[in-house]
Design brief:
The complex is a heterotrimer of chains A (about 500), B (about 375) and C (about 280).
Chain A (H helix, E strand, L loop, with lengths): L10 E5 L9 H5 L5 E4 L4 E4 L9 H5 L5 E5 L12 H13 L2 E4 L14 E3 L20 E3 L8 E2 L4 E2 L7 E3 L3 E3 L9 H14 L3 E2 L7 H7 L3 E5 L8 H5 L3 E5 L10 E3 L6 H7 L7 E3 L9 H14 L6 E6 L4 H10 L4 E5 L8 E2 H6 L4 H14 L7 E5 L5 H10 L3 E4 L1 H7 L21 H4 L4 H26 L14 E3 L4 H7 L2 E2 L3
Parallel strand pairs in A: 11-21, 12-13, 13-14, 14-17, 17-18, 18-20, 20-21, 22-23
Antiparallel strand pairs in A: 1-4, 2-3, 5-19, 6-22, 7-10, 8-9, 15-16
Helix pairs in contact in A: 4-15, 9-11, 12-15, 13-15
Chain B lengths: L16 E10 L8 H9 L9 E6 L9 E7 L4 H14 E8 L13 E9 L10 H15 L3 E5 L4 E6 L3 H8 L1 H4 L4 E9 L12 E3 L2 E7 L4 H9 L11 H14 L4 H8 L4 H5 L3 H13 L9 E7 L2 E6 L8 E5 L2 E5 L2 H7 L5 E3 L7 E4 L4
Antiparallel strand pairs in B: 1-8, 1-14, 2-7, 2-8, 3-5, 3-6, 4-5, 9-10, 10-11, 11-12, 12-16, 13-14, 13-15
Helix pairs in contact in B: 1-11, 6-7
Chain C lengths: L14 H4 L3 E4 L2 E5 L5 H13 L4 E8 L16 E7 L9 E8 L12 E6 L15 E4 L20 E4 L12 E7 L20 E7 L11 E4 L3 H17 L9 H6 L2 E6 L9 E2 L5
Parallel strand pairs in C: 2-3, 3-4, 4-5, 5-6, 6-7, 7-8, 8-9, 9-10
Antiparallel strand pairs in C: 1-2, 10-12, 11-12
Classes of the chains: A alpha/beta (about 500), B alpha+beta (about 375), C alpha/beta (about 280).
Chain lengths: ~500, ~375, ~280
């Protein structure tokens, strides 16, 4: 029986009819069908209940006639039974299903970045002027030996080195699959990474054949539980391989790329038939234990003749420090830790909002643990999951990260407005969609320029901060927690972060 | 040195680990040397990472077969510590003999603690007189392990012993000179891939209470539930690893409650409800009740365990077999292993090699039993 | 602080030091795997192929992993005979070679295999043919848990797994393509014991000979009648099976095998989990 929906709209679309000349751009721009034209009245109207607040129409309205603003607090204010819970219950009562959402956690949980302050030099040691003097951000990721054996006469290193990655700033694009994002978004990131001298990450959806040769030196190829598109050629056309165990937005579960997104191109990249659900199981079915992880790490090293570093990515969870130690001992050259703010193209809301821990705490615990065990140099640590600005990057490096992954921030650079409706596949900005009409809205050249600009801008900012600290090479910031102070943090939080309180 | 966490501290955490397990039994009771099991473990070297290895051997102290053989490690150099333990033992037991456990100083292991063994019989006093010998020993072992800082009883059965430490199993075997000094009719072994407690000799497997030993591969997701249930029965987990709960659960169910392994296997790894719902009524009632009553002892998460006590060696996996197990036999010899290759490495032509369904135990019993 | 020890990489000898384990005759290389670590054996295999070996015979294998994995030489096809027991992940990521195991195999046979053929003259362990996407695997006897899990196909790449015996639970779980044929020759008239067959299956076909109850099947599969084309396909695979194992299987004839009832399992939907989510009900 058809059920009347009890849901209230989330946004109000305000149209200034003085300005609107019924040009219908908004109708064309909105994939959710909010705007419609009434011929009789010769006017454009809106169905507000369909609006997700992506602001596409607002940006593209040639007359600036539109405003999309949050619907006023509609139920009786209640801190406990707040609007979000009431809304979800109503949705579930009408559907009987799991609430699906996208992007990273939107919950009000303490943001540790905002409770950490950076240092600067005054009087006793000089700050450095980054405009004038060299400022080095070059970073190597991979396993390092404890010491070098050197043949001094011939200036030759005799120690056999593990493969390492070189990047020009400690920022990489996080794994986002072709499938989760559009080809144009995917390619934008690849092009930006290549131009800048960093790496992008295929996510778990394989690598389109036409991109392999061009981008092989700036690609981290992912091997996830679904093994989509994973074959020897894919593995070998890469700078590094990442085993994805977990993701901050949904630790402990797999992913489902719904069949309608598995277009002909996606199907050839993932190597599954068109229209079939691409199901990523929750675990790798050949990894149920740490020694199995070791087995897969070495399988991948075997498959690539020991020429590529292998990274293992996990979600930040309770036991993260012990797990990280196990990963390093299992042979991981790089470990990536994704905090609970990390984004996704689709996740059950319950996982996104309730599972995992903040990456700041996870990073501090992992770095400390690896140092205590004397194995920190055996791996590099990349953290991701809600890195919003260059200051977050600097704080992450000082806490002990070698580099950061940015996903959400990169997509925002491409046009994303965090409307959190990626899972509908109707992204108005052409990012999280496989609809050819929508994805062509993003021109990879323009997208690459935006993403490149972001990397450039953040690098400049990092150099500014470094200079202020009197540091001219990023390695001197790495794990240098002396340059951090906490504010508004409890004793245990300062202890986990390994930093002093402000003024101490 | 690990700082002892008080037993009432609800924050005891288990840590992640994984491993190789191997067990071999001569069901005729014939005792044999350790070379076979050591070689089998060498074959599975890549399943461990050198942070833990250990062995349990049955039938090694026939000359003291009526005494409890306590193997104790002393983590602290403090001579007062051993004196404290000695005094405690002499107060509570008749110490028939005691000696340092012989070790090979040439062995490639780092910072071994002091190992001592005591052959004892209970001297029960006061209200302890009502306890059985076994319960009395358990109580005293628990006392040392929770109340005497730096001393750990890691083996407490009769005519059997556990030998374990930090290193690959073959290194531990070399350290304790297992091949040269001991003969037993059951050998179980473990190679550990822990991510915790580096340098902690007590954290290695097997875990032992009385003559029950457990080696384990996997990580128990139900650890917190299992541990807190067992605490109600006087078992305190002090060794920072999830395997300990299996050893205590086995002691509770098999020794104290006298349930056979066939039933215990179904408590640890019960059938799924959809399977139970399809059973005949009496069977359905049986399994429903078992699951209802022993719900806190369902061992959830991946595991393969080899459990042994005198006369019996058992291999078991979780109910959806998330960890591997292979059994093999040749004549009276029964093998249980993480990998078939390890069996074939030491027994080139087994009569039979098989892998049971998840939750179905492999059981080896002495022929004479 | 405890040093990091890597049992996989520690003690790996240089190629020169293990060269005596190889014997080259024409295009055939013979390797004695006695005492070789996992990596050493695969180092030697790679060198053999680089030097032009077309057939490689490995004796005394005892648990060495990843045989065939490090042989990604597009266009080259090598035949490898394994005597002894290969370790886990035999032929993982393999791309076009043929491996014959004269005995049992362990877990992960043909894991994420791309192309080629693996023939095991014995039984195999868990996760056989996991995520396999091309080529063929023949196992003479039984297989363990999660066989053919997430096997998938794409156009002409259709993986095939033939198991002469039976399987344990979760056969064909999450299966997204390819064909699995389970012959049940080791059953002796008992029914198959596997539960949760085809759970989450959303592509491909499973053929089962021998008795199996409806409750043993996952919710996402349906049983359909075998058609003429299915019988032709099955018969051709059974012929290959008998040919590959003729020296060790004497009791079975083609007619006898084909005379028994087969069932065919196919997914009910290409989108098994489409209905458990609330996307946003107004769409």
């Amino acid at each position: 029986m058809a059920m009347k929906s009890h849901l209230l709209p989330e946004f109000i679309v305000e149209r200034d009819n003085e300005r609107c000349d019924s040009c219908k751009v908004c109708i064309k721009q909105c994939p959710f069908g909010v705007h419609y034209y009434d011929e009789e009245k010769d006017r454009v109207y809106s169905r507000e209940e369909l609006c997700v607040g992506c602001q596409r129409c607002v940006v593209y309205c040639p007359k600036n006639a539109l405003k999309v603003i949050p619907y006023p607090k509609h139920y009786r204010p209640n801190d406990y039974w707040n609007e979000s819970y009431i809304r979800d219950i109503k949705k579930q009562a009408e559907s009987g299903g799991i609430i699906l959402t996208s992007c990273g956690s939107a919950r009000r949980t303490k943001i540790y970045w905002d409770h950490i302050l950076l240092n600067a030099s005054q009087v006793t040691n000089p700050s450095i002027d980054p405009l004038r003097e060299p400022m080095e951000l070059r970073t190597f990721l991979g396993r390092k030996p404890d010491a070098l054996e050197i043949d001094l006469e011939n200036m030759e290193i005799k120690t056999e080195l593990h493969p390492n990655l070189m990047i020009e700033a400690p920022i990489l694009f996080a794994g986002m699959s072709y499938g989760a994002i559009s080809y144009n978004a995917f390619k934008s990131l690849a092009m930006a990474a290549k131009k800048f001298g960093t790496l992008f990450n295929t996510g778990e959806g394989g690598m389109p054949k036409d991109m392999r040769e061009e981008f092989k030196d700036c690609t981290i190829v992912q091997c996830a539980s679904g093994r989509f598109g994973v074959d020897p050629e894919y593995l070998n056309y890469s700078a590094a391989i990442e085993i994805k165990i977990g993701q901050g937005a949904k630790p402990g579960i797999g992913g489902h790329l719904p069949g309608e997104k598995v277009t002909a191109e996606i199907s050839s990249t993932r190597m599954i038939p068109e229209g079939t659900d691409a199901l990523s199981p929750a675990p790798h079915h050949d990894i149920y234990s740490i020694e199995d992880l070791s087995m897969l790490i070495y399988a991948l090293k075997e498959a690539t003749n020991y020429e590529k570093p292998v990274c293992v990515k996990i979600a930040a969870v309770h036991n993260v420090a012990a797990i990280a130690s196990g990963m390093v001992r299992a042979g991981a050259d790089i470990i990536a830790i994704d905090g609970f703010r990390g984004g996704t193209g689709a996740t059950p809301k319950i996982m996104r909002e309730h599972v995992g821990i903040p990456v700041e705490l996870a990073l501090a615990a992992v770095d400390q643990r690896l140092r205590e065990e004397g194995i920190r140099n055996k791996c590099s640590v990349i953290v991701g999951g809600g890195i919003r600005c260059a200051a977050d990057v600097v704080k992450a490096i000082a806490l002990g990260a070698d580099a950061v992954y940015i996903g959400t921030a990169a997509l925002i650079a491409l046009g994303c407005t965090m409307c959190q409706h990626c899972h509908t596949g109707k992204c108005a900005w052409g990012i999280c969609t496989q609809d050819p009409e929508l994805s062509k809205r993003l021109n990879p050249k323009v997208g690459a320029e935006r993403a490149y600009n972001l990397l450039r801008a953040w690098s400049l900012e990092i150099k500014d901060v470094l200079g202020g600290m009197g540091i001219n090479a990023i390695e001197s910031l790495r794990g240098n927690r002396d340059h951090l102070r906490g504010i508004g943090l409890e004793e245990w939080e300062l202890k986990v972060l390994g930093i002093k309180g402000a003024g101490e | 040195m690990i700082n002892r966490i008080s037993v009432s501290d609800g924050r005891i955490t288990k840590e992640v680990q994984a491993c190789a397990v191997f067990g071999v039994m001569d069901r005729s009771g014939r005792r044999f040397r350790g070379g076979m099991v050591i070689n089998a473990m060498k074959n599975m070297r890549v399943r461990g990472n050198g942070l833990g290895g250990g062995f349990a051997v049955y039938g090694i102290y026939p000359e003291y077969k009526d005494c409890y053989a306590l193997h104790i490690m002393f983590q602290d150099d403090d001579p007062g510590l051993k004196q404290e333990v000695d005094e405690f033992l002499h107060r509570n037991f008749d110490v028939v003999n005691d000696e340092e456990i012989p070790t090979n100083e040439e062995a490639s292991v780092e910072d071994p603690p002091l190992f001592w063994r005591y052959f004892v019989t209970p001297q029960k006093k006061g209200e302890d007189k009502n306890l059985s010998d076994d319960d009395y020993v358990v109580k005293k072992v628990m006392y040392i392990n929770t109340c005497i800082n730096g001393a750990y009883v890691f083996s407490s059965g009769k005519d059997m012993g556990v030998f374990k430490g930090v290193g690959f199993p073959e290194e531990i075997a070399d350290f304790f000179m297992l091949d040269e000094l001991y003969k037993g009719y059951i050998w179980t072994a473990h190679s550990r891939f822990p991510t915790n407690t580096p340098g902690w000799w007590g954290g290695a497997h097997p875990f032992c209470i009385l003559d029950w030993t457990v080696v384990h591969n996997g990580e128990i997701s139900s650890y917190g539930t299992n541990r807190r249930f067992l605490e109600m029965y006087g078992y305190y987990c002090t060794l920072y690893t999830d395997t300990e709960v299996i050893a205590y659960a086995v002691d509770l169910l098999m020794r104290r409650q006298r349930l056979p392994i066939e039933v215990v296997a179904k408590i640890f790894a019960p059938p799924m409800w959809d399977q139970i719902d399809r059973m005949q009524e009496n069977e359905r009632k049986f399994y429903t009740t078992l699951r209802m009553v022993y719900a806190p002892l369902l061992i959830n998460g991946p595991f393969t365990v080899i459990i042994a006590h005198h006369g019996e060696m058992i291999g078991l996996t979780d109910r959806i077999r998330l960890r591997p197990i292979t059994a093999g036999e040749k004549g009276d010899m029964l093998f249980v292993s993480s990998e078939e290759a390890a069996i074939r490495a030491v027994c080139s032509h087994p009569d039979r090699v098989w892998t049971p369904h998840g939750g179905e135990p492999i059981i080896g019993r002495l022929r004479s039993n | 602080m405890v040093r990091l020890r890597d049992p996989f990489m520690d003690c790996v000898r240089r190629l020169d030091d293990i060269a005596s384990s190889v014997d080259f005759e024409g295009n055939t290389a013979k390797i004695d795997a006695t005492g070789l670590t996992h990596k050493e054996l695969n180092d030697l295999l790679r060198v053999c192929v680089e030097k032009g070996a077309e057939k490689i015979i490995i004796k005394n294998v005892c648990g060495q992993r990843y045989i065939g994995t490090r042989l990604h030489f597009p266009g080259k096809k090598v035949e490898i005979d394994v005597f002894g027991i290969p370790g886990n992940d035999l032929g993982m990521f393999m791309n076009g070679h043929r491996i014959v195991v004269h005995g049992n195999a362990q877990d992960g046979v043909g894991n994420t295999m791309n192309d080629g053929e693996i023939v095991v003259k014995g039984r195999a362990g868990d996760v056989v043919a996991m995520s396999m996407r091309g080529g063929r695997i023949f196992i003479r006897d039984d297989v363990g848990y999660r066989t053919a899990i997430h096997m998938k196909e794409y156009r002409e790449r259709v993986p095939v797994l033939v198991v002469g015996g039976s399987s344990q639970d979760f056969l064909g779980e999450y299966m997204a393509g390819g064909s699995v044929l389970l012959l049940g020759l080791t059953l002796k008239n008992q029914k198959h014991k596997a539960n949760y067959v085809g759970t989450g299956m959303h592509g491909g076909t499973i053929y089962i000979r021998g008795k199996i109850e409806q409750y043993q099947l996952g919710k996402e599969v349906g049983v359909v009648e075998m058609e003429e084309e299915d019988y032709r396909k099955v018969e051709s695979l059974v012929k290959d099976y008998l040919r590959y194992f003729k020296d060790s299987i004497k009791n079975f004839e083609l007619d006898e095998i084909m005379g028994e009832r087969f069932i065919k399992l196919v997914p009910v939907s290409k989108r098994p989990y489409g209905r458990i989510y609330t996307y946003y009900i107004r769409y």
